[in-house]
Amino acid sequence: MATSEHSDIGRRQAIRALASGAVAAVASASWVESVTALARQQAHAHAASAAIVAQNWSPRTLTAPQNDLVVALTELIIPETDTPGARVTYVNRFIDHVLTDAQPEVRASFARGLTWIDARSRPLFKSKHFLGASPEQQTTLLTRLSAEGNPNQEEATGRDFFQAIKSMTINGYYTTETGLRKELGDNGQLFLPQFQGCDHKEHQ
User: Fold this and answer.
1) CA 106 to the chain's CA centroid
2) Distance (Å, rounded) from C-alpha 24 to C-alpha 32?
3) How far apart are alpha carbons 127 and 124 in whole angstroms?
4) Confidence of residue 9 (pLDDT cuts 50, 70, 90)
5) I want to staple 164 with a disulfide (CB 3.0 to 4.6 A). Which of 32, 105, 112, 152 is the partner?
6) Which of 146, 90, 137, 94 is nearest to 118 (CA)?
7) Quick check: helix, strand or coil at residue 126?
8) Per the confidence metrics, is the pTM higher than 0.85?
């Protein structure tokens, strides 16, 4: 189990990778590159802010079971430590928003990845689906998917999907107020809850 200090270091490395565009730097399927670019664009523009915090929110693209799976996966990628994780910061809502704006083939590829995760969990952990596996087993599968060189011979479908959802999770989390201010100590220059516009009187 990683210590809180190591987790904090890992998270800060992730935001540096996000800022430099290094997330998804390895070779990936075109749909992964497409959805990663879209997620980065929307995160930087805070395009999903209002939709994410709406109290009557419901997924527009993900089904309810798919959304539950996305919530679990994102929380495993950025779990709660001394700061809130992906679940509390509604990263699943950000992902649904990005998918809603994505091309149909991208949405289909993401859905195939979710199906693959459940299908892979059955023989690997003798569970009916991913959510039925233990947290340790869930982490084991994600570790297999992220291992450099693919020593476990996991299918490209699963590896591409995990690369996509990891990038989307990082983009979504680290452009929230919680991700930047509480965890990274941002002074507000990176997180802008809304675009203020020019405040010069001659331009009003």
Assistant:
1) 15
2) 8
3) 8
4) very low
5) 32
6) 137
7) coil
8) no
